[in-house]
Every structure is written in structure tokens, then in C-alpha cells.
Amino acid sequence: MAVKTxxxxxxPVTKNLGxxxxxxxxxxxxDLFAHATQVVFGEGPPDSKxxxxxxxxxxxxxxxxxxxxxxxxxxxxxxxxEAGLDREKIYVTNxxxxxxxxxxxxxxxxxxxxxxxxxxxxxxLQAELASIEPELVVCLGATAAQSLMxxxxxxxxxxxxxFPHPWAKQLVATVHPSAILRAPDRYDExxxxxxxxxxxxxxxxDELAARG
Length: 212
Ligand code: URA
Fold this sequence. Notes:
Layout: H1 17-24, E1 50-54, H2 59-64, H3 71-83, E2 91-94, E3 101-104, E4 107-110, H4 115-132, E5 136-140, H5 142-149, H6 155-158, E6 162-165, E7 168-174, H7 177-181, H8 187-211
Helix pairs in contact: 3-8, 4-5
The protein binds uracil.
């Protein structure tokens, strides 16, 4: 009989973020736990109006145990600051909570999580969203969008559009900051577009909060 790959058996029935975070450390819902250093759970205030969802922890995040502390996180923080989004007030997490990588000598090279890992980890993301009940969930890149909007969602076509979502009032997707870092010849242009998306997000959060 096939073994079901899912975090569900590890996810406690609670809305307490601290309890969820503690429980996540033991998760063996897919194979990624075997090689990663630790689970990197989301971080931020439990009453955040916005949740930003990335792909998976990178090398730095895996070592430190915190999301978005490496190069992508630094770029994200800079762009958020420019767009008027206070990172301290925003909960930041990932679609997949263990680092997936391949070893090349001493280096650990990021490997993209597949559909099985994304769906196995979705119960943690759902639990975080159910606990926080944000106004807006922001998908950073295709993996987060796939987890929350399905495999047919295309960032290029749907970027910056706001959608209703069962786990938040609205959802919007933009690029992952690593995509900007990977395009040095288009850096300025891509960075400006990213900040423009984040500005629209800041404005929408104020609107949603005012609507109640
Ligand atoms: N990239 C992500 O998607 N998440 C992180 O936490 C770090 C890099």
C-alpha cells in the first residue's frame, strides 16, 4: 500500500502559533526532513494583517532556523521598506518548511520542491493561515502560488491581481525576490516592478482593514 505523503498527522488541532511551531519540528510528512537541519517555521506577529509566503528555506535559513534571512530575505526587506510595508508587522513563511538541496562538494545547492512536497507541507500553511486569519496573503513566486492557487496559476499572467481566497480575505502573487537576484542584467527594472507590486499591496491592506 502506498504511504501517504502529508504533514497532516503532525499538525495539532490548535490555532496557537507557538504550539504549531513546536509541533512542526517533529514533522516527517515528506522525505525532506531527513537531510535538512531543521524545520523553518513562519515568523511574525500572530495578528498580522498580511502573510507573505515564499518557496522554501534556503541554505542560510536552514542553518539559522528563520525564514528569509539570506540574500533573498535581505532584498525582500529592502523592497518592503521602500514600499512602506513594515516587515516587523508582517508574518513571513514558506510553502515548504524544510530546505531541499543537492550537494556539490561542500556546497548545498537549492533544489526546487516538487508537487508532492508542496502538497505534503500545505497543512502547515493552512494551519498558519487559520491561526492568523490575515486580510491578505502574498505569494512570492510560483511555488507559493501553486500551493495556494493550484498548478495552473501563472505568475506572469496573474501578477499583481487580487483574488478572493478561502484562507484569507484576498490573495495576490508577485515574483520571488530570488528571481530578481538571478537576473543581474535586468535588476533595476525587475526591482522597480517588485516595489510597485509591494506598494499596491500596502494600499490594498489599508483598504481591506478599513472595510472591516
Ligand atoms: N527563499 C524562500 O522562499 N524562503 C526563504 O525563507 C528564503 C529564501
